[in-house]
Amino acid sequence: MKGGLFDLDGVIVDTAKYHYLAWKRLANELGFDFTEHDNERLKGVSRMESLRILLEIGGVEAAEDARAMMAARKNAWYVEYISKMDASEILPGAREYLMALRSRGVKIALGSASKNAPMILDNLGITPLFDAIVDGNKVSHAKPDPEVFLVGARELGLNPTVCVVFEDAAAGVEAAHRGGMRAVGIGTHEALPAADIVVPGLSALL
Ligand code: BG6
Ligand code: MG
Prior knowledge:
This protein has helices at about 15-30, 35-40, 45-60, 65-80, 95-105, 115-125, 145-155, 170-180, and strands spanning about 5, 105-110, 130-135, 165, 180-185, 195-200. By secondary structure, it is α/β, with parallel strands linked by helices. A six-stranded parallel sheet has the order 3-2-1-4-5-6. Strand 2, helix 6 (about 115-125) and strand 3 (about 130-135) form a beta-alpha-beta unit. Helix 1 (about 15-30) crosses helix 4 and helix 3 crosses helix 4 (about 65-80). It is globular. About 40% of the residues are buried. The structure holds 6-O-phosphono-beta-D-glucopyranose and magnesium ion (MG).
Protein backbone atom coordinates (compact mmCIF):
# COMPACT_ATOMS: atom_id res chain seq x y z
CA MET A 1 0.00 0.00 0.00
CA LYS A 2 1.46 3.34 -1.11
CA GLY A 3 -1.77 5.29 -0.69
CA GLY A 4 -4.69 5.08 1.75
CA LEU A 5 -8.03 6.47 0.58
CA PHE A 6 -10.37 7.08 3.49
CA ASP A 7 -14.10 7.58 3.56
CA LEU A 8 -15.09 10.06 6.30
CA ASP A 9 -18.60 9.38 7.67
CA GLY A 10 -18.53 6.06 9.57
CA VAL A 11 -14.78 5.50 9.15
CA ILE A 12 -13.12 8.50 10.78
CA VAL A 13 -16.12 10.03 12.55
CA ASP A 14 -19.63 8.87 13.40
CA THR A 15 -21.65 11.57 11.66
CA ALA A 16 -24.36 9.08 10.65
CA LYS A 17 -26.29 9.94 13.81
CA TYR A 18 -26.41 13.64 12.85
CA HIS A 19 -27.44 12.86 9.25
CA TYR A 20 -30.18 10.67 10.77
CA LEU A 21 -31.44 13.36 13.16
CA ALA A 22 -31.63 15.93 10.36
CA TRP A 23 -33.36 13.60 7.86
CA LYS A 24 -35.80 12.48 10.59
CA ARG A 25 -36.63 16.12 11.36
CA LEU A 26 -37.42 16.70 7.67
CA ALA A 27 -39.51 13.51 7.47
CA ASN A 28 -41.48 14.46 10.59
CA GLU A 29 -42.09 17.92 9.15
CA LEU A 30 -43.43 16.25 5.98
CA GLY A 31 -45.73 14.08 8.13
CA PHE A 32 -44.06 10.66 8.23
CA ASP A 33 -41.57 8.82 10.43
CA PHE A 34 -38.07 7.76 9.50
CA THR A 35 -36.42 4.97 11.49
CA GLU A 36 -32.76 4.14 12.17
CA HIS A 37 -33.29 1.01 10.08
CA ASP A 38 -34.38 3.18 7.10
CA ASN A 39 -31.30 5.33 7.69
CA GLU A 40 -29.00 2.42 6.76
CA ARG A 41 -30.07 2.93 3.15
CA LEU A 42 -28.60 6.45 3.16
CA LYS A 43 -25.05 5.54 4.23
CA GLY A 44 -22.48 6.57 1.61
CA VAL A 45 -25.25 7.94 -0.62
CA SER A 46 -25.15 11.55 -1.91
CA ARG A 47 -27.41 14.23 -0.43
CA MET A 48 -29.89 14.38 -3.32
CA GLU A 49 -30.04 10.59 -3.68
CA SER A 50 -30.61 10.34 0.09
CA LEU A 51 -33.55 12.75 -0.27
CA ARG A 52 -34.96 10.68 -3.14
CA ILE A 53 -34.87 7.54 -0.94
CA LEU A 54 -36.39 9.42 2.03
CA LEU A 55 -39.30 10.73 -0.07
CA GLU A 56 -39.83 7.24 -1.51
CA ILE A 57 -40.08 5.85 2.05
CA GLY A 58 -42.63 8.55 2.97
CA GLY A 59 -44.54 8.20 -0.29
CA VAL A 60 -44.07 11.93 -0.92
CA GLU A 61 -43.81 13.39 -4.41
CA ALA A 62 -42.04 16.70 -4.92
CA ALA A 63 -40.87 18.78 -7.88
CA GLU A 64 -37.20 19.59 -8.37
CA ASP A 65 -37.29 23.08 -6.81
CA ALA A 66 -39.15 21.76 -3.75
CA ARG A 67 -36.54 18.98 -3.43
CA ALA A 68 -33.72 21.53 -3.55
CA MET A 69 -35.38 23.46 -0.69
CA MET A 70 -35.85 20.28 1.37
CA ALA A 71 -32.20 19.30 0.90
CA ALA A 72 -31.13 22.80 1.94
CA ARG A 73 -33.28 22.64 5.09
CA LYS A 74 -31.87 19.25 6.03
CA ASN A 75 -28.34 20.47 5.43
CA ALA A 76 -28.83 23.60 7.57
CA TRP A 77 -29.91 21.38 10.50
CA TYR A 78 -27.05 18.96 9.86
CA VAL A 79 -24.50 21.81 9.79
CA GLU A 80 -25.95 23.11 13.07
CA TYR A 81 -25.32 19.67 14.67
CA ILE A 82 -21.82 19.13 13.26
CA SER A 83 -20.64 22.68 13.98
CA LYS A 84 -20.55 21.66 17.66
CA MET A 85 -18.34 18.61 16.96
CA ASP A 86 -14.79 18.43 18.27
CA ALA A 87 -11.84 16.02 18.40
CA SER A 88 -13.60 13.87 21.04
CA GLU A 89 -15.84 12.52 18.24
CA ILE A 90 -13.00 11.03 16.16
CA LEU A 91 -13.63 7.26 16.06
CA PRO A 92 -11.24 5.11 18.17
CA GLY A 93 -7.87 4.56 16.50
CA ALA A 94 -8.58 6.76 13.45
CA ARG A 95 -6.08 9.51 14.20
CA GLU A 96 -3.47 6.99 15.40
CA TYR A 97 -3.85 4.82 12.28
CA LEU A 98 -3.54 7.81 9.92
CA MET A 99 -0.40 8.90 11.78
CA ALA A 100 1.06 5.38 11.69
CA LEU A 101 0.55 5.17 7.92
CA ARG A 102 2.11 8.60 7.41
CA SER A 103 5.16 7.60 9.44
CA ARG A 104 5.57 4.60 7.07
CA GLY A 105 5.52 6.95 4.06
CA VAL A 106 1.99 6.03 2.95
CA LYS A 107 0.17 8.97 1.33
CA ILE A 108 -3.32 9.72 2.64
CA ALA A 109 -6.39 11.06 0.81
CA LEU A 110 -9.97 11.64 1.86
CA GLY A 111 -12.60 10.17 -0.48
CA SER A 112 -15.98 11.32 0.80
CA ALA A 113 -19.37 12.04 -0.77
CA SER A 114 -19.95 14.82 1.76
CA LYS A 115 -19.86 18.49 0.79
CA ASN A 116 -19.40 19.24 4.51
CA ALA A 117 -16.18 17.19 4.76
CA PRO A 118 -13.72 20.16 4.95
CA MET A 119 -15.61 21.69 7.90
CA ILE A 120 -15.77 18.35 9.73
CA LEU A 121 -12.01 17.73 9.30
CA ASP A 122 -11.31 21.27 10.56
CA ASN A 123 -13.55 20.83 13.61
CA LEU A 124 -11.79 17.55 14.40
CA GLY A 125 -8.38 19.21 13.90
CA ILE A 126 -7.13 16.53 11.49
CA THR A 127 -6.98 18.38 8.15
CA PRO A 128 -3.13 18.37 8.17
CA LEU A 129 -3.10 14.54 8.22
CA PHE A 130 -4.37 14.45 4.60
CA ASP A 131 -2.21 14.91 1.50
CA ALA A 132 -5.33 15.31 -0.64
CA ILE A 133 -8.99 15.96 0.10
CA VAL A 134 -11.59 14.78 -2.40
CA ASP A 135 -15.17 15.43 -1.32
CA GLY A 136 -18.68 15.95 -2.70
CA ASN A 137 -17.70 19.41 -3.98
CA LYS A 138 -15.05 17.95 -6.28
CA VAL A 139 -16.78 14.99 -7.92
CA SER A 140 -19.96 14.63 -9.94
CA HIS A 141 -20.52 10.85 -9.83
CA ALA A 142 -21.52 9.39 -6.46
CA LYS A 143 -20.33 6.01 -5.10
CA PRO A 144 -20.56 3.21 -6.31
CA ASP A 145 -19.01 5.14 -9.21
CA PRO A 146 -15.23 5.03 -8.58
CA GLU A 147 -14.65 8.73 -9.44
CA VAL A 148 -14.02 9.94 -5.86
CA PHE A 149 -11.27 7.34 -5.29
CA LEU A 150 -9.74 7.64 -8.78
CA VAL A 151 -9.42 11.41 -8.29
CA GLY A 152 -7.92 10.72 -4.83
CA ALA A 153 -5.28 8.36 -6.27
CA ARG A 154 -4.50 10.87 -9.03
CA GLU A 155 -4.11 13.72 -6.53
CA LEU A 156 -1.67 11.54 -4.55
CA GLY A 157 0.22 10.85 -7.80
CA LEU A 158 -0.32 7.11 -7.41
CA ASN A 159 -1.63 4.28 -9.54
CA PRO A 160 -4.97 3.01 -8.13
CA THR A 161 -3.54 -0.52 -7.85
CA VAL A 162 -1.19 0.58 -5.02
CA CYS A 163 -4.00 2.30 -3.11
CA VAL A 164 -6.26 0.78 -0.48
CA VAL A 165 -9.74 2.14 0.29
CA PHE A 166 -11.20 2.19 3.83
CA GLU A 167 -15.02 2.18 3.69
CA ASP A 168 -18.06 1.50 5.88
CA ALA A 169 -20.60 1.54 3.02
CA ALA A 170 -21.23 -1.26 0.49
CA ALA A 171 -21.45 1.40 -2.25
CA GLY A 172 -17.93 2.55 -1.29
CA VAL A 173 -16.50 -0.98 -1.39
CA GLU A 174 -17.99 -1.40 -4.86
CA ALA A 175 -16.52 1.97 -5.93
CA ALA A 176 -13.06 0.83 -4.77
CA HIS A 177 -13.24 -2.41 -6.76
CA ARG A 178 -14.59 -0.68 -9.85
CA GLY A 179 -11.56 1.65 -9.62
CA GLY A 180 -9.13 -1.28 -9.38
CA MET A 181 -8.40 -0.80 -5.66
CA ARG A 182 -8.59 -3.16 -2.70
CA ALA A 183 -11.09 -2.33 0.03
CA VAL A 184 -10.91 -2.68 3.80
CA GLY A 185 -14.46 -2.82 5.12
CA ILE A 186 -15.15 -1.04 8.40
CA GLY A 187 -18.10 -2.83 10.03
CA THR A 188 -19.33 -6.40 9.67
CA HIS A 189 -19.00 -9.18 7.07
CA GLU A 190 -22.81 -9.25 6.79
CA ALA A 191 -22.98 -5.58 5.80
CA LEU A 192 -19.84 -5.63 3.61
CA PRO A 193 -19.61 -9.09 1.99
CA ALA A 194 -17.55 -7.82 -0.97
CA ALA A 195 -14.76 -6.21 1.09
CA ASP A 196 -11.29 -7.81 0.85
CA ILE A 197 -11.01 -7.81 4.64
CA VAL A 198 -13.39 -6.50 7.29
CA VAL A 199 -12.48 -4.98 10.67
CA PRO A 200 -14.85 -3.44 13.23
CA GLY A 201 -12.87 -0.17 13.27
CA LEU A 202 -9.50 1.36 12.43
CA SER A 203 -8.20 0.60 15.95
CA ALA A 204 -8.12 -3.09 14.95
CA LEU A 205 -5.40 -2.26 12.40
CA LEU A 206 -2.98 -0.65 14.90
C1 BG6 B 1 -21.71 10.52 2.95
C2 BG6 B 1 -22.70 10.02 3.99
O1 BG6 B 1 -20.41 10.47 3.47
O2 BG6 B 1 -22.00 11.86 2.59
C3 BG6 B 1 -24.13 10.18 3.48
O3 BG6 B 1 -22.44 8.65 4.29
C4 BG6 B 1 -24.36 11.63 3.07
O4 BG6 B 1 -25.03 9.79 4.49
C5 BG6 B 1 -23.31 12.06 2.05
O5 BG6 B 1 -25.65 11.79 2.51
C6 BG6 B 1 -23.45 13.52 1.60
O6 BG6 B 1 -23.16 14.36 2.69
P1 BG6 B 1 -23.46 15.91 2.75
O7 BG6 B 1 -22.76 16.34 4.01
O8 BG6 B 1 -22.84 16.54 1.54
O9 BG6 B 1 -24.94 16.10 2.77
MG1 MG C 1 -19.19 6.23 5.11
